[in-house]
Amino acid sequence: MDTSGEPGASRSRRRWPVQEKLRIVMETLEPGVSVPVVARRHCVNANQLFIWRGQYRRGELGGISEGDRAVKLLPVQVEQALVPQPPSSPASEAIAAPAGCMEIQISGGHHVKVRGHIDAEVLRVLIRELLRPC
Q1: Sign (positive/negative) of CA torsion 21, 27, 33, 37?
Q2: Is 58 a residue whose pLDDT tops 60?
Q3: Cα angle vertex 24, ends 18, 30, to 5°?
Q4: Which of 72, 64, 84 is nearest to 22 (CA)?
Q5: What is the enclosing helix (H) or strand (E) of 101?
Q6: What pTM, to 2 d.p., does this model score?
Q7: Crossing angle, helix 46-57 and helix 18-28, to 10 degrees?
Q8: CB under 8 Å to 25, separation ≥6 — which residues?
């Protein structure tokens, strides 16, 4: 569609630098943001912005893909055991299994601390029960 008002004049296409596309796409990845609203704010067609988002997810615009942004890391703290260990002989070291301590904080206020040998199956059941809705 010719919007210049002059017969025979053609409308030129805007060329977006990759960094500008990436900056606009990153805006749309924030929680609760509307893609059409961002598109209007930057004078971009919303369909074009969805195309750029697809290019971003496929790694064609550079940067980190949306799938990588979805990964959430949980804080972990490793501490030395505060329980003094009795002196051991080389023979008892070969027999004794190392004692462990695990502390788990789950959203909703649940907190579990396990000392000694940690049985994987028991721990799995415990966590499943803590995460189960009441």
Answers
A1: negative
A2: yes
A3: 135
A4: 64
A5: strand 100-106
A6: 0.41
A7: 100
A8: 49, 52, 53, 56, 61
Structure-token pair, residue 69: 């942004």
pLDDT digits (tens, 9 = 90+) for 70-125: 556 667 777 766 656 566 555 555 455 556 777 777 766 667 777 777 777 877 77
Residue 56: exposed, middle, or buried by beta-carbon count in 10 A (0-12, 13-18, 19+)?
A: buried
Contact (CB, 8 A) for 25 and 56: yes
Give residue-wise pLDDT tens across range 18-44: 999 999 999 998 889 999 999 999 999
Contact (CB, 8 A) for 99 and 88? no
